[in-house]
Amino acid sequence: MRIQKTQFSLLAGALVLALGLAAGIQQGVRAYSDSIYTKLSVFNQVLNIVTSNYVEEVGVDSLLDGAIEGMLDQLDPHTTYVDPERFEQMQERNRGTYSGVGIEFDIVEDWLTVISPLEGGPSYELGIRPGDVITKIEGESAFGIKTDEVFEKLRGRKGSPVHVTVRREGEPEPLEFTIIRDNIPIKSVPYTFMLEPGVGYVRLARFSATTSDELEEAMQMLEKQGMKELILDLRGNSGGFLNEAIEVSDKFIEGGRKLVYTVGRIDGSSEEYFSTGRATHERFPLVVLVDRGSASASEIVSGAIQDWDRGYVVGETTFGKGLVQRQFPLKNGGALLVTVARYFTPSGRLIQRDYSDKEEYLMAHRGDEVAMDSTKLKDRPIFYTAGGRHVYGGGGVTPDVVIHVDWSQSDLQRELERDRSYFDYANHYIGSRHYSWPGTFETFRKEFVVDDAMLNDFNSFIEKRKFTVSIDSLKAEYDDVARGIRREMARNLWGKNERAHILMEADPVLPQALGLLPQAKMMAEGNIPAQEPGLVEITVSMGPEKETKAEEVLEPGAPQ
């Protein structure tokens, strides 16, 4: 929005006057108010000079947004201004739902391509499949569509229709679908399954308004399948609602235990939160997976479980985001997120790590630093769990077993993934042959084999895409190639939960987690294992030459 110079001067002057009058109501702070008034007057003067004299015409809105961001930059990294568009997206994620057609998509060579229909959503119910290309929306070509245009055209009011035309591999003619938009859940638990008999796995991706309910549903489902031990995966979970973190922790920790506490300056910001004892699940062995991307609410859960000796924490030291933000809606539809408190684990560990260098703080994760150079732990304070085990403070949650994974791929695998070769081949194979698996997913997982004929067929398919690779190169990396084909076949035939199950077979952290379950069982029974002499760090190399090595990295010092 443009504002004429005279109009802007009057508006800005009125704003300054109003702020100055409001600030000067109390006589005891008159000098302080005068100082603010002077600075706001200078700000108004600078703004007028820039808008009147700058070499190019500038928008007042962008200048004012920049001024707000500059002011907040003097504070911590998490006190931020959220513009209206981002605020709406944030609310959507936190609500755990939106209204639309229910697909995960990507723009592939300028075409809107379905990566996966969301199970139970309107697209899924109509039979839209992974690999389908949406060529038209309401009769208009979707070629060259941008991501924001997809949201604009496919999302909308619940119950409203949208017509799409689909090109599908193996179908001679386009398919026409009228999709009735519906509420689409944004899953906090994107997938869950039995890793092996008796061992359940739950992936918890975020802490939204529906997280504790989703986790409860997942755990009940796994218990019906015979779950006696659980691996809870919080890797990459950047957090969310504090109350949901407390609800999740409450499912595992007996009643009357402090789960987390906050310390702040204003009324209501210093609080203690306790478990209720309402958990209806048996006290099964528990291993929690974390990494450098686990933050905030994830750190509340993993910190409470570790401090109360309820389970083992495995992976990388977490991000270290221990500041509590309160949300203040603004008149323009945006919001101000203001840090009002810091939070601590039950043993007294401050989760927040140092952010004096904000650029380093936001770009580098402490988990990587600790996993690659664990001797730095010698400078960190030691705390004690309820059972007397050593745990480390100084920012983030340091796992009981640190696992550093070198996720680097071979050049061939990077190229195959970048070209979407596995995804497209599975769509082609299933679509062109109208292929279906005669049994269940479990039999597919155990019995489906990528044989020489399929490997040659895959090689021919990617060569037609002007991607030349020798069959010998594919055979040299057979395990990775076969798994890539199997996972995308599973996605197309069943869905992303089954794709994830295939993918997790190669996760190098899981064998370490499974190996800790006997000790986790002792812990669940109240028999705290003897304190290890120091952290154990496991380094796993991926790629064609896989290697695992473990070593003790630190002898704990005296408490600080």
From TrEMBL:
Keywords: Hydrolase, Protease, Serine protease. SMART domains: PDZ (SM00228), TSPc (SM00245). One of its GO terms (cellular component) is outer membrane-bounded periplasmic space. Belongs to the peptidase S41A family. One of its GO terms (molecular function) is serine-type peptidase activity. It comes from Eiseniibacteriota bacterium. GO terms for biological process: proteolysis; signal transduction. NCBIfam families: prc (TIGR00225). Residues 87-155 form the PDZ domain. This is S41 family peptidase.
